[in-house]
Amino acid sequence: MRVFTKKPFLIADISxxxxxxxxxxxIADLEAAKFLINEAHECGVDAxxxxxxxxxxxxxxxxxxxxxxxxxxxSYFDSFKQFDKFGVGEFRQLAxxxxxxxxxxxxxxxxxxxxxxxxxxxxxxxxxxxxxTNIPFIKHIACKNKPILLSTGAATLLEIKQAIRAxxxxxxxxxxxxxxxxxxxxxxxxxxxxxxxxxxxxxPEYEIGYSDHxxxxxxxxxxxxxxxYGADVLEKHFTFDKKYSGVDSCYAMDxxxxxxxxxxxxxxxxxxxxxxxxxxxxxxxxxxxxxxxIVAKRDIKxxxxxxxxxxxxxxxxxxxxxxxxxxxxxxxxxxxxxxDTLISFKMLK
Length: 349
Description:
TIM Barrel; 2 domains; eight-stranded parallel beta sheet; two-stranded antiparallel sheet
């Protein structure tokens, strides 16, 4: 079954961008989040995505471990701590607000606590690429029996299959497998959109999507190509102004980008048409004008037996088709046939 009936289904990942917007505009965080929800809604986005977590639940303070990654303990923790101000109350308000304007509210919980409080008002869970190997967490979410968007950044095919198996061991929920590249921003040469086709081939029973971290190109070709390759669910970070210097602004789309993408989808719908190969109504005249018929190559007298050397093939295609040449050769002319005349079966016996 499909998680979303609309195709494509476009998700604006507001994530933590609203904190920066609030700071820039001098407004409250909750007001900023609602403003961005409205901005996404007005340009035609189908859903908004947030991240739910507490820094202390997802970041280890093990100095040795962080030193091995050349990461400062305080800077790493603090970079997440500044974006974990919202809890159950704020996200419930945002969910209610989304529902009131006809938007789908989504969130990617990064810890067990967030996954649990979201259950009351979240219809669909997003599992981050960072948790693709966190099997206990995946099972915990799957047990809530709600559809799942499974992001697969930096994952092997085996790891994806293990995650899917973990979900299926405890639930029968529908899953969207999202191609993603865990690099921010993702260089165009690293987007590897053909991996979408690989996911389609390896998981034919699942809906496939794409979470995009590339910088928006002028014509939104990356997102459009992903859709054309089989990604029905598309997610991209969203901002009010791409000139902001926030953590994800450099690879976030804005309202104008959404409009470009939707224009592209309409154009694709127009040019893709039907899949089964057959003549089109617009080709009806051309079939007759440009195809060829069997034509007398010389004057053929009544009673003569027609040989292959007596005929040729010329436009228009309103006479006997060349495909039926064997039904003409060997027949006898029952009337005089002038050179360059389209032969018809009534001339033969």
